[in-house]
Design a protein that fits this description.
- The protein has three helices and twelve strands, in the order βββββαββββββαβα.
- By secondary structure, it is mainly β.
- It folds into two domains: 76 residues, Beta Barrel (Elongation Factor Tu (Ef-tu), domain 3), CATH 2.40.30.20; 92 residues, Elongation Factor Tu (Ef-tu), domain 3 (Beta Barrel).
């Protein structure tokens, strides 16, 4: 479980294709108390640390992970990193599981002094989980939905978020990992059971 508050931006240092694919990621802050077996959110995907090195860690990507996440797995790619939530930590974002629900596409940006509105199109079927003032995680970043129009929603990014995460590097057409609000998924399941 995560909060969607990115601790640092890491860099993919090596990719070793295979079954599973092994990826080494350069980092500092998330490694302060890391152990093999810990979970780290990598641009919204909950991954298990399988090896620790000097200012880097390795994860393994199953076929399912490669199929369901945005193509971040190339040398030099910058990724948002967050350690798993500890009992007693502050919950400043929202509950984020690190289970990517789908890959969206950046549609446009509306920039103005002090803020940028980011518009993202979701894959068909995910729009039912979006609600104005609801929560969503984009590449592992906890954000509040501002507007919803069909399959396109918007969020507002403040300068800090643009600078402290990879969201400031996005361009129109880029793919992004999306995780809808956990409560919306459970509510839908409860309603189906009725």
């Amino acid at each position: 479980m995560f909060t969607g508050l990115v601790e640092e931006v890491g860099v993919v240092r090596a990719v070793h294709p295979g079954r599973p694919t092994r990826v080494r990621i350069g980092a500092r802050s998330v490694l302060e108390d890391a152990r093999v077996g810990d979970s780290i959110s990598v641009s919204g995907a909950c991954l298990t640390v399988v090896e620790l090195g000097d200012a880097e860690f390795a994860v393994e990507l199953a076929e399912e992970t490669l199929r369901r996440t945005a193509p971040r797995w190339r040398i030099g790619a910058r990724v948002n990193l967050e350690r798993a939530l500890k009992v007693g930590d502050r919950l400043g974002g929202h509950f984020v599981t690190g289970h990517v629900d789908g890959v969206g596409r950046v549609v446009r940006f509306d920039r103005r002094p002090g803020a940028t509105d980011l518009f993202v199109e979701v894959p068909s079927g995910l729009e039912r989980y979006l609600a104005e003032k609801g929560s969503i995680a984009i590449d592992g970043v906890s954000l509040t939905v501002v507007s919803v129009r069909g399959r396109v929603f918007s969020v507002t990014l403040i300068p800090h978020t643009l600078n402290a995460t990879t969201l400031g590097e996005l361009r129109v057409g880029d793919p992004v990992n999306l995780e809808v609000d956990l409560l919306a998924r459970y509510l839908e399941r409860l309603m189906e059971a009725r």
